[in-house]
Design a protein that fits this description.
With about 280 residues, the protein is mainly beta. Helix content is about 10%, strand content about 45%. The protein has a domain at about 5-15 and about 95-260: Porin (Beta Barrel). The termini are far apart.
């Protein structure tokens, strides 16, 4: 039995392949002092990516957004809020001429015909009422006689009345016709002294007004008048100055307007619902 065991051991030893022994390789496989062999082989392992976590182990909140992410996905909606509804813009309607009150004051100058001679007339007045409709009016003026060599005469007409005024279209052009009643004060200086006379006076003004700016414009008026009686002065039986009771005036000038529109009820806008209440 001992010889058989020896024979089997010799066969096993002789069949094992002989491995060459390299001094350098044996030197490379020496264990470190701690007794632990390194795990990496001949090929170097891939390096791990640098960590984005700071030293104090707190992760930053501003993470980089990937380039393929859409802007809608990156925006964070604010819960509990919504945008305010847009309030429609209010467009003020144009003022109603029949309900808008206006005071118009004017100063006008022009010639006045009393049959034969042509005199100069200066007049001023004011109307109070609606832009379109019936208005009250007051006027005062002065008529300066042209022939003043022997009689220096002045006439001062003034009176009150009513005017119907209409606005022509959407432009600030007005036409009016009126009737006034008042007095005409006549003053004359002659060789005998100063004379004063007072006569009733009627006027039928027909005028056109064009408001150029917000409150100023041009006015043109044709003003017929009637002062009941004629005026004349004689010298040695011959008339040296006379005026007819009927006169026709054509004057042009400027006017100023003070417009007062009707107060409108204030509308409160509910911004939450975007409507009116």
């Amino acid at each position: 039995m001992s010889s058989v065991a020896l024979l089997l051991g010799w066969v096993v030893i002789s069949s094992a392949p002989a491995s060459p022994v390299d001094d350098d390789a044996s030197a490379a496989t020496e264990l470190p002092i701690g007794g632990v062999a390194p795990l990496q082989g001949g090929a170097s392992a891939p390096s791990a990516p640098a960590s984005t976590i700071p030293v104090d182990a707190a992760e930053p909140l501003d993470r980089p957004v990937s380039s393929d992410a859409s802007p809608a996905s990156s925006s964070i909606p604010i819960t509990g809020t919504r945008p305010l509804p847009q309030v429609p813009e209010r467009i003020e309607p144009p003022p109603d001429p029949k309900s808008t009150r206006m005071v118009r004051q004017d100063v006008m100058l022009g010639p006045v015909w009393r049959v034969r001679p042509v005199d100069t007339m200066v007049t001023t007045g004011a109307t109070l009422g609606h832009e379109h409709g019936l208005s009250g009016t007051v006027h005062a003026g002065m008529i300066l006689a042209s022939d003043r060599r022997q009689v220096q005469a002045f006439d001062f007409p003034f009176g009150v009345g009513a005017v119907y005024r209409a606005r022509l279209g959407h432009r600030s052009v007005y036409g009016s016709v009126g009737l006034t009643a008042g007095l005409l004060v006549h003053r004359a200086r002659t060789v005998l002294g100063v004379t004063h006379r007072v006569d009733p006076d009627l006027r039928l003004p027909l005028r056109f007004d064009w408001t150029i700016s917000a409150a100023t414009g041009l006015s043109l008026a044709f003003v017929p008048g009637y002062s009941v009686r004629e005026r004349s002065y004689l010298r040695r039986g011959a008339p040296v100055w006379s005026r007819s009771a009927v006169r026709l005036g054509l004057v042009i000038g400027l006017h100023w307007d003070i417009v007062q529109r009707r107060a409108r009820p204030r509308r409160q806008v509910d911004r939450r619902r975007g409507g009116e209440r």
